[in-house]
## 1
Amino acid sequence: MKDHLILAIDVGTQSVRAILFDLRGNPVAICKDPLPPWQSPCPGWAEQDAGTYWEKICSATAGLWHNHPGLKGSVRGVALTTQRSTVVNVDRAGRPIRPAILWADQRTAQSVPKLSLHWSLAFRLLRLGETVAYLQSQAESNWLKLNQPLVWEGTYKFLFLSGYLVHRLTGNFADSAASQVGYMPFDFRRQDWARPSDWKWQALDMDPGKLPDLVRPGQMLGQISREAAAATGIPEDLPLVAAAADKACEVLGAGCLDPHQGSISYGTSASINMTSSRYVEPLPLIPPYPSALPGAYSLEVQIFRGFWLASWFIREFCPDQRLAARESGADPEELLDQAIAGIPPGSQGLVLQPFWSPGLRDPGPEARGAMIGFRDGHTRAHLYRALLEGLAYSLREGGERIEKRSRHKITELRVSGGGSRSARMLQITADVFNRPALRPHTWETSALGAAMVAAVGLGLFTDFKSAADSMVRIRDITEPNPESVKIYEDLYQSAYKPLYKRLKPLYKAIRL
């Protein structure tokens, strides 16, 4: 068993990572290849040449074998996890016919398919008509049909990025049911394509033939093809096991299998998740997403831009930190962590609402970012600390909503994602939530979760609890500071929680 390795391929927004894990959850070897920045042909658009993702997989795996040639023979299977909600139009041969539209894209369809009278009336009575219309306007398929009809007519399959890469690896048009997060006619309760009578088919006017076959996590998507083996160096005929989308894998990789465990991710998008065996909508019409555990659900509240805000702040306001980081070899985030060390909890009354991108409901499509409480003594470092605190406030609010809807209390927090490398962010999280913040033994929790699904699917573990017991460990625990907890509790209750409701009319007034 000690010689069994799993190859996890993790395709994120900023890089592609190929990682070999052993059955103790140790990353035995890793090769990372950065992705170029996405392109914005028009304001608000986010596109990437889909072939670039495949090229980066090939270069990352080639680097892995080059640096560790003796490990290839120990690999028992492959798992793939990718960023969510990035879509690719392909022809019959699986070749992209336009750039991929990324999750960060903000284009909207100005005209959408009409729903039947039955569904229109039902949503109006439930006061969900505006939400459904917003969902329709956000659907990439509706935008493509309206603005690029020839592309849509030439689309043989309309795939998430995961489905496109599964085809490149195996030749099959298949995908994991746990990777279906986005604007597709997917039944989140059944975790399968929606039944013919479902309103989603009308809302998207989608041809079922354009969609891939779905399999549950842990089942086989296919085997590595001869062509893929030649391009990547992955041994031919190795099984590709269906895993899940990156957030779902991250929850599993953090060891959050039970409802009392909250998984916080400080990635490009920040989120708080709870694993549930029951279907519970965190908000009406906003479904729980598929968990990496077959048949389970991941209740999630997401801050769309999340820890991207830290990168944005550094890019726009911290040229000296960026220069110092280049000269010293440190990360700019490390230097800013040092800069905020002397700033007290609460940023001396500066409160930030991190809604740089709108949401569906609470915050809704009108939401904007806001910061209140400026005084002449505030510095750039105060702004950065307030940004980190605002993310923690927002995730606490989301966690409370999940607790209320699920009727489960979150008693344990596990924190992962790039932002979890910051000891300051961990302390802020522990203090805002007034709960210990536990950090797993590896930063690569998304890839680890994918490897765990593969290990169970291949029969190397009997179940997911056994896999978690063996492959997940806690590196360190950050305890809340009682004095900071009181400051944050007062600010959260008196300033942060009322802020969105009071600013909402103003957001609507300036909505363009």
Note: The radius of gyration is 22 Å.
## 2
Amino acid sequence: MVLKNILPVLMATIASMSALIAAAADNAPPPLQAVDHVDLDRYAGKWYEIASYPQRFQKGCVASAATYTLRKDGDFDVLNQCRDKTLDGKQRDAKGKAWVVDKKSNAKLKVRFFWPFSGDYWIIDLDKDYQYAVVGHPDRNYLWILSRSPHMDSATYDGIIERLKKQHYDVKRLNKTLQPAK
């Protein structure tokens, strides 16, 4: 008797959940788009963080920068550096490795700082002169705006923000990174 009464409720619940899942899938953003091609030699070097989504592994970081050194095997040595809480704070370093996973574009990489864990590192916007780059993740939970200099003019930054909106990023989550004065 109890089963007979529960069955219609259970069926209605399943139907309702199926409708919610289908609606969520319909509202999902399209797949993240990486740039068409990255010249790894030009990408190598030092990049300053202009803005990023807050991440616990960067908590307290200011004056953040990353240096990518191209190795003979085609991978990168990665050195992330920042100052702890203030521009005069203790320097924090993280060394890692990055490697290309999409050889056609060189725009999709993996990066590892702690074995065996690695994460996606997709170059989703790149200046033709390699003066800025935007790095994201396919799930859109990570985002970094990088520049060859510690400061970026507002027109360039605003253009990046508009392109990020078209890539379905929540730009309100971005925090600008404190860098030393010009």
Note: The chain has one domain: 40-176.
## 3
Amino acid sequence: MKRARLGRLAALGAAVALAVPAGAAANEVTKWNEIAVNTVNAQAPITSAPPAGAVFVAMVQGAVYGAVNAADRHGKPYLVNRSFPMAGKDAAAATAAFVVLDTLFPGQHADLQAAYAASLLAIPDGPLEDNGAKVGRMAAEAMLAEGHDGRTPIGCTFGSGAPGVWQPLAGPTGAPLCDPSPWVGHGVPFVVGSPSQFRTQGPLPLTSAAYAADVAEVKAIGSLSSATRTAPQSHAGAFWQTNPAANYNAIARRFVDQLSLDLSDSARLFAMLDLSAADALITTWNDKYHWDFWRPITAIRHADADGNPATTADPTWTPMFDPSLSPAVGGAGPALITPPYPEHPSGATAYASASMHALASFFGTDEMTFFATSSRFPGEQRVFHRFSDLTNEVLEARIWSGIHFRNADVQAANLGRDVERYVHTHQFAAAH
């Protein structure tokens, strides 16, 4: 994509991003992106939880990009190293997505097969369709062979009980809540070299003044009964406890519709978005279990053991994310709880940062007007005028919710940015 076209897209996006054109038709990339997100989210938590879901959606979008790029070589090869100029891009995209999803989720075969048949029916018969399907299968099989699907049940880990070490919290039945997808931290990245390549600086020392300041902040504004958190902040905290893959991919699909992006640009957009997000989440989960840091609820209740004279224990402190929160505040969906895995760094902030930086990289600007939605508040559209504004709001929302220290959010935002820059530089820069 040439820089001039990027500039035109950005200018157009800033003008029309809030208006979905009447009758806007999905192309094969956006059609299968929506199918992929819905299929992944319908699975058990080991597959559908945000870090795992990011991996599986990325497998689909990476295969789609690899196939389309081979049929219309415009960027650095991915998965398929040869060019196939006689391959149809529509058939390549649909086949790549179908084969990956059908292999990963055989229980959805009937629905996936029906959607694939509908895609092929809309594509003219002939060599372009046949060759496109072959290239799509080639890209899908290459993706599946890379071993990103590392779903392996891992037992709940328990900390030592020492100050600063993460401890599982009890669920409704009294049993400890466990991370549904800890395997992601040992997953195979898509572009990044290893899960530990972007190791963060880690939590603040327990005895430091900076740590005491972080504790004081979340203790005050993140409490269930906070006197300083505003109603809009409480709403934002609940709003962002939604599915990131569904949210951020929907934003990208709206841009495709609004700007009438062609199939090649669409494939690149979703690959940049989802490969960056997945590698950021793999890195984040590896980092979480490397540092194994306690959540604010544990840190505040046991502050008398942290060795810091500037912190004071409150054995009854409860975060905003608590099942007793009024449904009117928390919206629809599961009870809001402290996530059942280590605190540092923030997964939601890393996900947002990588995703928003990917969108900014694609369009060549941070300044775009768009809206985000939330499964907790159906019908609400939260409007932003910069991609970075969304990341910043997610960062603050995790503190307002009482589940993260500021340090974990700031380092997560930096991690997401750094991972996206690496992915863009090593895979997509040649196309820009």
Note: The domain at 3-152+184-431 is CATH 1.10.606.20 (Vanadium-containing Chloroperoxidase; domain 2).
